Each structure stands twice: as C-alpha cells, then as structure tokens.
Amino acid sequence: MTTLTLARALNEGLRKALEDDPKVMIMGEDVGKLGGVFRITDGLQKDFGESRVVDTPLAESGIVGTAIGLALRGYRPVCEIQFDGFVFPATNQIVNQLAKMRYRSGGKLPLPVVIRIPCGGGIGAVEHHSESPEVIFAHTAGLRVVACSGPADAFTMIQQAIRSDDPVIFFEPKRRYWDKAEVDTSVTAASARPMDAAVTLVEGSDVTLLAYGPMVKTCVEAAMAVREDGRNIEVIDLRSLSPLDMPAISASVRRTGRCVVAHEAPVFAGLGAEIAARVTEECFYSLEAPVLRVGGFSTPYPPSRLEEHYLPDLDRVLDAVDATFAF
Amino acid sequence: MKASATKRTACRARLAGRGDPAPALRIKEWHVSVEADGAAAAAPDVMPTAGPSPALASAPAAAAGLPPGAGAPEELIQLLTPEGERVEHPDYPLEISAQEVRDLYRDLVLVRRLDTEAISLQRQGELGIWASLLGQEAAQIGSGRALGPQDMAFPTYREHGVAWCRGVDPVRLLELFRGVSHGGWDPREHKFHLYTIVIGSQALHATGYAMGIQRDGATGGEGPEGGEAVIAYFGDGATSQGDVNEAFIWASVFNAPIVFFCQNNQWAISEPLERQSRIPLYQRARGFGFPGVRVDGNDVLACLAVTRAALRAAREGQGPTFVEAFTYRMGAHTTTDDPTRYRLAAELEAWKLRDPIERVKAYLVRSGAADAGFFGEIDTEADRLGARFREACRSMPDPAPLSAFDNVYAGPQATVDAERDAYAAYLESFEDGTPALAPAESPPGALPRGPGGFGRDGDVR
Predict the structure, then answer these.
(1) Of A62, A74, A245, the CB nearest to B212
(2) What value of ipTM does the predicted structure carry?
C-alpha cells in the first residue's frame, strides 16, 4: 500500500500500461515534457520516448483521428483531451468514426482507443473548463464510458480501459486530482474489480444514492453527515456510465425503496434520467417514492464565482434525499 | 502552348522536392502540353512516345467549361494527351509495356461498366443510392495501380476503381449502397479501408496509420519496395474540411509516409471549386510544408507515374506529397442529385473530349499495341462482368434482423445484449416468427424510401 493522489495513481497506471504492452501510446497536447496541464503524464515521455508519448499538434479531431489510424495499425493509443470542453472538436471522430468502426466492419476492425477527459467543475476555471459531457458519449453505441472517483480505482481502471478492445471514454474528476488515498499498486488490471461493475461505498437501508466521478466524494460525505441522525444512506459509485450496472443498482433500490441520482451535469436528459427510467421499470413495486435527481442547472456552466451554486453540494444532495421521504 | 524552360525548371524544383517554386505561370489553356524530350523508347515491349508534341492550340477551347475559380491548370503533368499522343515529362519518365497499357485499358473499361451497371441497379430500385465515378476512372486506376501490395489505401465512398485495383470483389461494394452492410470487405485483407461517408474524416485515419508504419520501422527498409506507404483519397470539397487540414499538419510535422490524393472533380455536389479555394489546390501543400503536384486526372499514365513517385518518396522517408488529380465528375454527385440545376451542359461537352478511356484506346490503336480483336474481348468481358454484377446484386440477401445487434462491442455488453434478447422474444411472439414489416419480408427492390433513395431533398455528400 502506498498513498497516492488520484493524479499520481493515474500516472502510475499509465506507466504500468506502457510497461506491459509496447503497443500502448499516449498522445495529446502538452503530454510530453510538460507532463500534461494536470501532470498526469509527468515523466512518461522521458522514460518511454517521444515515439510512444507524443506531443501532438493542437487539434482535438486530429488527436482522435490519428489515434484511430494508429489503432488500425495495431497500436493502443491513449488520447488526452486537455479539458472537457475541448472534446467537442473531436466529436465527429469519436461519435462517427471511433464508436462505429467495429460495427461497420462486421467486427473486423477493433479500435482499442482510450480518450481521457478531465471533467467537471469546482476549480475556479474559465468557461469550457468545467463541463460534464458524459451523457453524449453514453448515448453513443460502441463506446464504453467510465468515470473514476478515487486513486485506487484510477490506478486499475485506466489499465483496464487500455486493455479493453472497445473504445473507452475515461472521465477523470479534475477537482479530485489532488485527493489522496491508499493504493495497492500490486493489484493488477486482471484481478481488480471490472471497470463496468458498480461498487457500494457506504451500506445503508433507507435510500440508494447513486453517483460517479467527482460527486462520489460529496455523496459519501453526505451519507456520513446524516448517519448519526439515524438516516442510513447507501452510496453506490457507478464507475461505469455505459453500460450501467443495473443489477447492482436495482438490488440496492429494491432493498431501500428510494433512489437519488447525483451528477454535476445538467439534470435535463442527463444520466439520471436514464437511471430513473430503468429503476422505475425494474423496481416499480419496491419504490416508496419517485427516483429523484440532483445535478447542475439546465444552463451553460456559470462563471466560476457561481459554481458553488451550480454544483450539487452536500446540502443539495441531502435536500434531494429528504425529498424522497416526503412522498 | 508549349512548356517553357522556365516552367520545366519550376516543375523540377517542386518535385525534387522541396525547393522554392518558380513564380506561377498563367497558362490560359486547359491543355498544357509538355514537350517530349526524347523519341520512342528502346525496349521492344516498351510503348513508344511521340516526338515533340504539337501545341494543342486546337484542343477544345481550353478554358471553355472550366469553372472560373479553377484557374488555369498550371503545371499540369500529362503523359498522354486527350488525343492519345504519348508525351514525356522530365520528372516522370515512365517505361511501360504494351501489355501494361492494355491492362490499364481493361481496368478502365471494366470499372466504367460496373459504374454504369450500378446506376441502372439504383434506377431499378436495387440500390438505395450510388456514387458514380464516371470521368474519374483514370485518376483511380492510375493511382490504384501505383500502389504496392504492402501499401494501405483510405478511400472516400467513390473509389470503386481503387477498390478494383485492390482486389475487392465489386459485388462487395454494393452492400453499402444496397443497405445490407456498412462495408462488406475485409480492409486488412485488401489493404483498402472501408468507405468513409463523412467528408475528410479518413484523411486523419490514413495519417495515423502512416504514423504506425513509422513506428513499425516500415519505411525505407527492407523489401522490394523499400517500405510501406499510405494513400488517402478525398475530393476538392474535402479540402475545406478541418480534418483534412489537420491531417496535412500531422503528416507534415511527423513526416508521415503518406500520399494525399485529391481528385479535384470540380464540383462538391452543387458547389464549384471556387467556393472551396482561391488558389489551385495543389499549391496549398506548400503552406503545409510538403510538395504538391497537379496531374491530368484523366490521364491514366500520368496518374500512375506521379502517384508512384509520391509513394516512393513516402516509402523512402521523405514524407507526404499532395497530388491534385485534375478531373471532372461527368455524372451526378450521386443518383439523388440533379446536376442540370447548377452546371452548364457546355462544360460537360468540353470534358467529354478529354475522356480518360478514349485517349488510351487511341494510343493503343495508333501504336499498334491493340487491335479490334482485343477491344472486342474487353467488351465481352465487360458484358460478362456486368451480368454477374447485376445478378449478384439482385440475389443479395437481406441480413437477419438480429444481426443488427452484432459487433457493437468486442464482447458482452449489458445494454445491447438485453435489447437483443428482448427483440428476439418480440420476433418470436409472431406466429411465423417475423412481423410483417421486418426486413426479411421485404421483396427485393422494395426499399422503403423515396425514389431518390433518401427522400425528396435528402442527399449524402
């Protein structure tokens, strides 16, 4: 066991993947000498060379498009998109090309490409640096979409994503990059919990609280805060946003009878909407209240001096939890 | 108009690579003939070249019909005039046997026949849409035959001639246009990628693939061809796409072994070249830091020679080349299009005189390399191919409904698997296992679409 920040755990996971498979590459803007604007790739170019850790020209579509070509040639590129809002110039390559190539080719052309995206707000950034675009990719068939929430998962999930023969959109909660936790770096990608499995972080019997990425920490804190008041919140970290681990979600909701979904992304047509629909279908006779959602406003991300209002915090999460008991 | 010495020098500098270009010459005629340096070739089976070529002042008036924005085709590399006269170009010596020219002629005729048949099949309701290559046969066969078996090609959706050169059964091309698959051939087996519909996207895939070749150490190395290279196809419209420009940048800064082969057919559906560019397209390459050349895209020999040279440079580690094949889309953009709404018949008539097949035929006849018997055999072969093509199209089965769920992911995936199971159960709930509207019940040709394929105003680019 060693104590690592989430950022460092990702770095160690990438390093392990580069060591394990000579076909693994890292490409993106400033990922080389600088080590990325968040230093996730710090030192990797020095150790693995400019051919495997590639500082690319400044164009996101080019990063993903050339990664597709490299994957067609047998490589396993890991693309860094510098910030969430910058992924949109690459949307054609991700949605039209990357996601569909296996399907279009009748299974002949797998594209094992990972797109790493630092996501979410909370760091006082200027606009386009705090977005939560996960649902766009969850809506796109052919992609796997995952979000890590802490250092231990970050270490193993990035390795699993790189080993996946499907393209993976890998969300990293940027405001949690500097959070520390114990990481067992002897855990291998193969022995770790699969990246498409949800995990229950806090067991409880009153209500199921679902979160992923940056909201996981907030939800765990919320559960702890009301525990002594006698309210038992079960917190599940979804980890995989596409596919959803519905067996885990439904099993919990059938026990608790209540469900709240929390995310930073706007509530309207967000991932919570899909979860609410599925929970309603699968757990209808167990529900004591409608599935409630708590998330960002259906507005553009506001100026950062307002982001504390926009981002669901502990109190807004608990407010939603309380609301499920009002039915 | 004869090429001047100045022009000759400029040409060499550009091709040698990478020197400063001479000031552009303004040549007002479309037919830029280049004086032949030498007379006929020596080897017995090598096709002859003509002596000094007469100035083709009489050639169809020149700029007539050319889109104004296209400008003059400066530096147009030509080895076979529209009249079928073999001319030399100092930078592209081409030794070619009579058999090789006959083979090229066969390729040209057969792919044109396939194209004609496909248009008919669309009109008969057997295909949803077809993107015709009419007029672009030489650009595709010339460049396609320049490829070595080790090279990789990334097409648009119109490269039926290149597919032919890569050994793809033409019937497989129909699957996309009939709607039974999104591909139909194995891109790895043929080293010919799937067709790409979203304009220009494949230029980046090709560039990334070329970067992979570099990482594999497969340039300038061992082997008869000295390495591998990639060719990326796209059209004049695609040069406005960000992805194509990004591909130029990536290829340039990483010195990727790639040839960008642009078939400038003058029209992006209804938009003429001047809506894409104020300068000749090949000149754009210089801004990206690699050479650009313009070749007569209706001259199969020139396309062959120029593409060979560009591929060789790429394989040898000299980086990318931009080839602008100056040609013309003789037909509609696709079968849903109506070009009479936006271009003049006179333009089409002018380009008919530059037909890519007729000039090869004239050359073969003039040089005595083929007789009527040969041309008859090719026509017969085309008839047989057409018949097989039609029959294979009409008898092509629709895919099984549940195959829609295949190959979305590498392995099990909960969302898709659950929906497949649910839809299978739904199908089984019908007495005969199939709802009335399921694709398997549709009679051939009864595509549930408008006569144009994609509805009244719909189209793909």
Answers:
(1) A74
(2) 0.97
